[in-house]
Protein: Flavohemoprotein
Amino acid sequence: MLSQKTIDIVKSTAPILAERGVEITSVFYKRLFEKHPELLNIFNHANQKKGRQQAALANTVYAAAEHIDRLEVILPAVKQIAYKHRSLGVKPEHYPIVGENLLAAIKEVLGHAATDDIIQAWGEAYGVIAQAFIDIEKEMYLEAKEQTGGWAGFKAFKVVKKEIESSVITSFYLKPADGSNVPDYLPGQYISVRLQIEGEAYLFNRQYTLSDSPGKGYFRISVKREADGHFPHGQVSNYLHDHVEIGDEIEVSAPAGEFVLDQGTSPVYLLGGGVGITPLMSMLNDLANKKSARQTVFIQASKNGEMTAFRNEVKEKMDSLPNGESYLFLENPTSIDRQDGGFDHQGFIGLAFLETIIKDPNAKFYICGPVPFMKAMIENLEQLGIKEANIHYEFFGPSLNLKEKQFV
Structure:
């Protein structure tokens, strides 16, 4: 239990984190990896280079400081981050290391302003925050291990099928290398893939959504080749596309995540942009497998036909649903796209279109795609009077606060 003095100090210094949080966390990660380079085996290197992890941590600590006397307020955010930690293999012994280097970073950045009382208060507060994560993650590790076919940490899986879905997306079908069963999971969850890339000193972790429904005896991940013109910058995605073949083994964590399809009866709208379609494909396949009578509207946005994944699969699943309808938006249709006419609208999914197809304000909406896409969809839905509780979204990488347009 924190003293009132500690609570007062932490809350009074919270605004400093809003102002200098990214500076503090940037120093923190630099210190952390210099002193403990082995932790590079856990963290996503790409998010570090882009500064996303630094910003995410800064705002997480800020939120915790603001609510240090009522941590239950941020419990949903804590659980979301804890799922990512469990999926990546974060353990209790990592938290004291993080705490030591975070306090040192605060002192380095704030200088004389970081008095002994402030550092002591933050040390005590960090202990409480860390314990909240440790307790939740302990339950998550146990749940992952004790489910049928489950395990803790990482397990070897074999690639049994590799299928090109579009010019930029390829699916990998994975089965346990030891021949055991695949555990059940919820439509929309993700796994972590851990790779050793030749010539690299540290392992690479990436989280990929499971793009097929549960109960099929395999995991399917659908990976976009991340490249900028002729210069690939997605080290793991390019490695998977170019070097991982049928029969190869990769390490995988048990499924995790809270962006999952509810099992109710209300209408469901699935809105996906680019590779953000992957968790929605898991949801769509689950609805189709159960021959759900729910009104199901699938809305996909892509740049052009060549980059559009799962077109045939979407059509097949929608045709099997008694109350299903789908729409494909292409930003820049090619001449072949125009000739084939295999899309419904050119441009972006806009407010006017959504207004014409949303009949029930109590419907459930699931959104995944690039950040600008999700921001636009959320704003459109809110303008149409959709309640916040009915709008669900998932993003790839550190958590984002799309309303405040900042990392959290």
